[in-house]
Write a structure and sequence with these properties.
67% of the residues lie in helices and 0% in strands. With 144 residues, it is an all-alpha fold.
Length: 144
């Protein structure tokens, strides 16, 4: 242990572990297991959701502090930074909502991995066939 390390440990009142103790730590081997795509997607979305929520919470605290600094200093740059923080927090909230929407669209309960087809809007429909087939089809629809 060098003099610097001794002085720091005395000043901070902490004990420095010896290098031999660090080298003798047990090695933990991890097994790579194959997880289903749905489970991995759920874990990833929960991880991202937690991270975004954590960033929003920390950003809110930082924004409160920035607004206090801007009020006290009345400096234009402080207000500019606060406005930028407000925009970033707003974007983070939108990201959180987008994540929920994407998770819903990809969920297997939807019945369709691509997305929910119940709310599909058709702008242009094309009928492939002859006019007589179209007339027969329309007559059958009217009868039903």
């Amino acid at each position: 242990m060098s003099n610097l390390e001794k002085k720091l440990s005395e000043t901070l009142n902490v004990e420095i572990e010896k290098e031999e103790e660090l080298n003798n730590l047990p090695v933990v081997e991890s097994k790579n297991e194959i997880t289903p795509i749905e489970q991995a997607a759920n874990e990833d979305t929960e991880f991202a959701r937690d991270n975004i929520k954590n960033l929003i919470n920390k950003g809110s605290v930082a924004l409160d502090n920035l607004l206090q600094v801007a009020r006290e200093s009345e400096h234009p740059r402080a207000y500019e930074v606060a406005a930028t923080m407000i925009k970033n927090l707003s974007d983070s909230n939108k990201d959180l909502l987008d994540l929920q929407k994407k998770k819903k669209d990809l969920s297997p309960n939807n019945g369709n991995i691509v997305g929910n087809t119940k709310n599909m809007n058709i702008d242009k429909a094309v009928f492939v066939g002859s006019t007589t087939e179209l007339v027969k089809f329309l007559k059958n629809k009217q009868e039903e």
